[in-house]
UniProtKB/TrEMBL annotation:
<dbReference type="GO" id="GO:0005886">
    <property type="term" value="C:plasma membrane"/>
</dbReference>
<dbReference type="InterPro" id="IPR003593">
    <property type="entry name" value="AAA+_ATPase"/>
</dbReference>
<keyword id="KW-1133">Transmembrane helix</keyword>
<dbReference type="InterPro" id="IPR003439">
    <property type="entry name" value="ABC_transporter-like_ATP-bd"/>
</dbReference>
<keyword id="KW-0813">Transport</keyword>
<dbReference type="GO" id="GO:0016887">
    <property type="term" value="F:ATP hydrolysis activity"/>
</dbReference>
<dbReference type="GO" id="GO:0005524">
    <property type="term" value="F:ATP binding"/>
</dbReference>
<dbReference type="Pfam" id="PF00005">
    <property type="entry name" value="ABC_tran"/>
</dbReference>
<dbReference type="InterPro" id="IPR027417">
    <property type="entry name" value="P-loop_NTPase"/>
</dbReference>
<dbReference type="InterPro" id="IPR017871">
    <property type="entry name" value="ABC_transporter-like_CS"/>
</dbReference>
<keyword id="KW-0472">Membrane</keyword>
<protein>
    <submittedName>
        <fullName>ABC transporter, ATP-binding/permease protein</fullName>
    </submittedName>
</protein>
<dbReference type="GO" id="GO:0015421">
    <property type="term" value="F:ABC-type oligopeptide transporter activity"/>
</dbReference>
<keyword id="KW-0547">Nucleotide-binding</keyword>
<feature type="domain" description="ABC transporter">
    <location>
        <begin position="46"/>
        <end position="281"/>
    </location>
</feature>
<keyword id="KW-1003">Cell membrane</keyword>
<keyword id="KW-0812">Transmembrane</keyword>
Length: 290
């Protein structure tokens, strides 16, 4: 017994030191000393003004000279090849990273001049890998809105095409969810994360490749339901599948961290080589013209 104590003590000391280092680490993203409030005359407008970004310690820019603006009630899609900077771009909006140069404005307000809480309170962020936790369907969907009642949760589930799953589940909304959603499929995980964002009722939705594990039929039904729900919000979608973004009001095409094209699907098919090649690699001309 005594010998075990002598063995464990050095290990515990090293572990305690490491925990202390983590706890004492200064956060890279900080709130301003004198934060201001968002402009209340506008709602959900996101604007990038000559934004450049490189990761801390890196020499090369991941994004350079990015400028575009969204409009309330419209969908802006971000597309491009692997490594083009799509996810990095949308991760700058909630300040998961801070930009290197330029400005990002929400409702005419620089996002670095408000608190992180105020900024993220406006946003419903849905990553590709849904962050589900051990609990129930109800607790997972309602996580972003502590005031969400059962009607709102069921509405969010219906929009996310989860109603059939919930209705056939043994305990409806009280059905257990394992840590990480280990007891449900990849598509159900993504739809539950989407339902969580809908239940939050944010002004800005960010879908970061959030439809990749969802079959085409469900994808189409979900996006149609979302369009009705988000008519008074701003939607940004990062997607690999062109059919997911074809009907977006604005499509931003990234290539090596720069904007290679900007416009509607029809405009880009005519004027943007990068977009046209990406589209034709996935769908036929007949499908792209539908």
């Amino acid at each position: 017994m005594v010998s075990m104590v002598f063995v464990m003590m050095p290990r515990a000391t090293v572990s305690a030191q490491r925990i202390a280092e983590v706890l004492e680490t200064e956060p890279g993203i900080k709130d301003p000393q004198n934060p201001i409030s968002f402009d209340t005359d506008t709602k959900g407008k996101v604007e990038f003004q000559k934004v450049g970004f490189k990761y801390p310690g890196a020499d090369d820019y991941v994004l350079k000279d990015i400028s575009f603006a969204t409009k309330l009630g419209q969908t802006t899609a971000i597309v491009g090849g692997t490594g083009s900077g799509k996810s990095t771009l949308v991760n700058l909006i909630p300040r998961f990273y801070d930009i290197t140069e330029g400005q990002i404005l929400i409702d005419n307000t620089d996002i670095r001049s408000v608190t992180q809480y105020a900024l993220r309170d406006k946003i419903g962020y849905i990553p590709q890998k849904a962050g589900l936790f051990s609990g129930t369907i109800e607790s997972n969907i309602g996580y972003g809105n502590e005031n969400a009642d059962e009607d709102l949760l069921k509405k969010a589930a219906r929009i996310a095409q989860l109603t059939e799953y919930i209705d056939t589940a043994e305990n409806s909304l009280q059905t257990p969810i394992s840590q990480g959603g280990a007891n449900i499929s990849g598509g159900q995980k993504q739809r539950m994360a989407i339902a969580r964002a809908v239940a939050k009722q944010p002004e800005i939705y960010i879908f970061d490749d959030s439809f990749s594990a969802i079959d085409f039929k469900t994808d189409a039904a979900l996006r149609k339901a979302l369009k009705k729900e988000t008519h008074n919000a701003t939607v940004l979608i990062v997607a690999q599948r062109i059919n997911t973004v074809m009907h977006a009001e604005q499509i931003i095409v990234l290539d090596n961290g720069r904007i290679a094209g900007k416009g509607t699907h029809k405009e880009l098919m005519e004027n943007c080589t990068v977009y046209r090649e990406l589209a034709l690699s996935q769908l036929s001309m007949e499908e792209l013209s539908a």
